[in-house]
Amino acid sequence: MPSLMPHFWTCLNVIMQSINDRQKITYGELADKLGLKLAKQEWSGLLDLIARKTMAEVGYDLTWNVVYARGPAKNLGRFFSNGGKAPGSTLLNPKDQKQIASYERALQEIYRYTYELQRLRTRTRW
After folding, report:
1. Residues 6+ apart with CB under 8 A from 4
2. Interior CA angle at 118 toward 112 and 124, to 5°?
3. Is 44 within 8 Å of 110 (Cβ atoms)?
4. Please, which of 18, 36, 108, 110 could form a disulfide with 31 given CB 3.0 to 4.6 Å?
5. pTM of the predicted model, to two decimals?
6. Contact 53, 94 (CB under 8 A)
7. Distance of CA 9 to the CA centre of its chain
8. CA angle, corner 14, sides to 70 and 107, nearest 5?
């Protein structure tokens, strides 16, 4: 499978726009916006880099806004690495209601502070 790294800046921009719109984005929608034919990609390398960058620059893992379109984890992200854990280190358990509630609260907090995204966007040119 080809590397997704050439899509870094475009992917970050798409995720930031979805957050500015306060709408989750599915892997399939993200693939479409990046011009990829399949949503089934090796997302972890690309999304982990974006997560590290956004954690460092705005204090939030913005990749939590990328979610599954169907299945047991529908409308949920793959990872939930809160509490200072490294991005991509803790899988989100779709059966753990406490974890899901915490994940949704964190997303709402990200949505409330979208002005931080604008700060990141103005400091970073793409």
Report:
1. 11, 34, 36, 41, 42, 43, 45, 46
2. 140
3. no
4. 36
5. 0.80
6. no
7. 13
8. 60
